[in-house]
Design goal:
Length: about 400
C-alpha cells in the first residue's frame, strides 16, 4: 500500500520535530493565505481605485479553488506524495504573493488568487491532518492537538505583523516580504519535516483490513452527515467573519471597540486547545464535538442580542474556544469512523464541500442582509444554521459508519 510504505528521501525527523515544523508552517501559511487579505483591501482600493466587490471576489475565488482542489491533494497524499504536495503548495503560495504584488488589473489579481486557492488546499490544516494521521497512526490525535495549538496563534499574530509590513514597505512591498517568507522558510521546513517513510508509527494489520475506501464511505450515512456538519459550520464561520465589522457598526460600536472584542478570539481558541491537550486525553471526540457544536449557535445568539462590551467579549471567548476545538474534532474523528488508509481521499472529499460552502457564505449572507435589512436577523439565522450542524453531527453516530462486513475491497 503506497500510504504505508516507502520513502520520500532520507531519514524521518522525530515526532516532536515533525509536528513543530508543520506547526510553524501552519502559522505562517494561515497568516498569509487566510487572515492577511483583509489588511490589503483598503491600501489596494486607494492606489488602484477598485471597489470592494471586485477585491472580495478574488478572495472568494481562492476559497472556491481551495474546495475544488482538496480531493486531488488528498489523493496525492494517499499515494505517498505528501512531501511534494506540502512543499510545492508553500512554493506556489509564495510565488502567488510575489505575483500579487505586481497586479495592475483585476484579472491579474484573480489569477493570483486562483493559484493561491490551490496552495491553500496543499498547505493548511487539512493536508497537515492527513499527513500526521498516516505517519503516526497511534499518536495522530496528539499530533493534531499540538499542531492546532500552535496554529491558533496565526489569527493573533498576523494582523500586527502584516500591518507593520504595510506601514513600512507599502502593500506591494509587504506582499513581496510575505512571499519570501513562504518560499524561504515554509518550503524548506515542509521539505525537511516530511522526509522518510510515509508511515512511521506502529500499524496494526486489522486496522488496514477495516479501513474504508472513499467509495465505501460514500454509501453510508455517517459520511454524508459529517460532510453536512462541517459544511454548515464552515458556512457559519465564513459568513460571520466576512460581516463581523459591519455587524459591530450596526450595533453602534466603533472599529476600535470591535477590535478590542475580537482580539479575545485568538487567545480563547488557543486556550481551548491547550486545555484539551492537558486534560482531554480521556474525552471522546464525539462527545466533545456535540458540546462545542452546540456552543457555536449559543455564542452567535449572544452576539446577536448583546449590546454591551462585556457581553460581546463573552461571545468572543465562547466562539473562540468552540472554533479551536471543532478543528481538533474534525481532524481526529474522521479516522475513527473510516480508518487511515484512504484518509486523504475521504477527508479531501468532505473538506471540498466545506470549502465551497465557505466560499459562498459571505455572498449568501449579504443577500440575506439585503432582504431583511437587519444584522440581528442575519446572526440569528446563522445561529440556526449552526444548530443544524450540531444536529447533523449528533445523527452521525459511529453505527452509521462503514461496517467491516459490508466492505468489498474496491478502491477509488
Amino acid at each position: 500500500m503506497a500510504s504505508s510504505v516507502a520513502a520520500e528521501g532520507g531519514a524521518q525527523p522525530g515526532f516532536g520535530a515533525t509536528v513543530a515544523a508543520l506547526a510553524i508552517g501552519q502559522v505562517l501559511s494561515w497568516s498569509v493565505l487566510f487572515y492577511a487579505f483583509t489588511s490589503f483591501v483598503l491600501p489596494m482600493q486607494r492606489e488602484l481605485g477598485w471597489d470592494k466587490p471586485a477585491l472580495m471576489g478574488a478572495f472568494t475565488l481562492g476559497l472556491a479553488v481551495n474546495g475544488l482542489t482538496t480531493y486531488a491533494v488528498g489523493a496525492a497524499i494517499d499515494h505517498g506524495r505528501a512531501r511534494a504536495v506540502m512543499a510545492g503548495g508553500a512554493l506556489l503560495a509564495g510565488l502567488g504573493c510575489i505575483a500579487w504584488s505586481r497586479v495592475s488589473a483585476p484579472w491579474m489579481l484573480y489569477a493570483c488568487w486562483a493559484a493561491m486557492g490551490a496552495a491553500m488546499s496543499a498547505t493548511l490544516y487539512e493536508p497537515a491532518f492527513m499527513v500526521l494521521t498516516k505517519r503516526y497512526p497511534t499518536r495522530f490525535k496528539e499530533a493534531i492537538t499540538r499542531l492546532t495549538l500552535v496554529g491558533g496563534f496565526a489569527s493573533t499574530l498576523c494582523y500586527p505583523a502584516v500591518n507593520a509590513l504595510i506601514g513600512g514597505l507599502g502593500w506591494r512591498g509587504a506582499l513581496v516580504a510575505m512571499g519570501v517568507v513562504l518560499v524561504g522558510v515554509v518550503v524548506p521546513l515542509h521539505w525537511w519535516a516530511l522526509r522518510g517513510p510515509t508511515q512511521v508509527g506502529h500499524d496494526l494489520a486489522h486496522d488496514r483490513v477495516a479501513d474504508a475506501t472513499l467509495h465505501e464511505a460514500l454509501r453510508h450515512g455517517a459520511f454524508w452527515l459529517l460532510t453536512l456538519t462541517f459544511a454548515l459550520y464552515a458556512f457559519v464561520s465564513a459568513a460571520f467573519w466576512a460581516h463581523v465589522m459591519p455587524a459591530f457598526a450596526a450595533k453602534g460600536f466603533s472599529e476600535a471597540v470591535a477590535t478590542a472584542v475580537l482580539v479575545w478570539f485568538g487567545p480563547a481558541q488557543v486556550l481551548g486547545r491547550f486545555v484539551h491537550a492537558v486534560a482531554g486525553h480521556g474525552v471522546a471526540l464525539r462527545g466533545l464535538g456535540i458540546v462545542v457544536l452546540l456552543v457555536v449557535p449559543a455564542s452567535l445568539v449572544l452576539f446577536a442580542v448583546g449590546n454591551t462590551v462585556s457581553t460581546l467579549i463573552a461571545f468572543a471567548i465562547l466562539f473562540g474556544v468552540a472554533n479551536g476545538l471543532v478543528t481538533i474534532v474534525r481532524g481526529g474523528l474522521i479516522p475513527e469512523y473510516f480508518g487511515r488508509s484512504h484518509i486523504g481521499r475521504i477527508s479531501g472529499a468532505m473538506a471540498g464541500v466545506a470549502m465551497v460552502a465557505r466560499a459562498a457564505a459571505p455572498w449568501a449572507a449579504a443577500l440575506v442582509l439585503v432582504a431583511v435589512g437587519d444584522y440581528l436577523v442575519v446572526m440569528l439565522l446563522l445561529a440556526g444554521v449552526g444548530a443544524g450542524a450540531a444536529v447533523s453531527f449528533w445523527l452521525a453516530r459511529p453505527s452509521a459508519a462503514v461496517p467491516v462486513a459490508d466492505r468489498a475491497r474496491d478502491t477509488v
